[in-house]
Amino acid sequence: MTLSEEAEARLADIVELQPTKNKALQERWGMESGSDVHQYLESELKEYYYRDENSLIRATAEARAVVTGEKPESFAVHMTDFERHVFAVAPGPDEESASVVNVLHRLREEYGDDLENDDGEDPGAKDVRRALQSLKRKGVVELIYRTVPTFRLAVERDAVTVDEVD
Fold first, then answer.
1. Which InterPro entries does this entry report, sorted A to Z (predicted)?
2. In sequence order, what E strands does the chain have?
3. What's the CATH architecture for 5-68?
4. pLDDT for the residue numbered 103
């Protein structure tokens, strides 16, 4: 996706200000409302940002690469506790991808009865799917279509530093 000069500049603002809110971007960009910011993000920068569990706006790994002009050897990604667990057991980039159910089984095997989703409950396939999709948006997991959708890491595990919760 090719970005306009304005979109690249605004993407740089997101990278610089993250984690941020609509209000901060509204002021930076001189927009009338937070709704205008949201509309712009969704229409122009949808592939380059995500909202964390506190609805704060964060840049994807791809966004940081676009802004800096180079793909970093390592980068920081914000993850919830449950996403950290999913990331830890997901197949690596050189391994065969795994289904949501397979990742759930890996989680239970690795963490046993101590495993909880972000709501403090016993996780199910829906929670794993949500975490994998979130990690995909953040640029650290890729989706591979086989008989069923499957996932694996898009980067080496040690290339990712998990941001501490703000």
1. DUF5797
2. 49-51, 57-59, 75-78, 98-99, 141-145, 149-153, 160-163
3. Orthogonal Bundle (1.10)
4. 96
- In the predicted model, what is the mean pLDDT of the chain? 89
Q: Which amino acid makes up residue 158?
A: D
Q: Domain 78-163, CATH 3.30.830.10 — does that match?
A: no
Alpha-carbon span 164 to 152, nearest angstrom? 23
Per the DSSP assignment, residues forming a β-bridge with 76 are 161
Q: Is the pLDDT of residue 1 over 70?
A: no
pLDDT band at 39 (very low <50, low <70, confident <90, very high): very high
Can 5-68 and 78-163 be said to share one CATH topology? yes
Per-residue pLDDT reduced to its tens digit, 45-66:
998 998 887 889 998 888 888 8
Residue ranges of the domains in the chain?
5-68, 78-163
Which residues, 6 or more positions from 135, have their beta carbon under 8 angstroms from its beta carbon?
A: 79, 83, 86, 87, 90, 141
**48, 63 in Cβ contact below 8 A?**
yes
Determine how β-strand 98-99 pairs with β-strand 75-78: unpaired
Closest CA to 125 of 144, 155, 149: 149
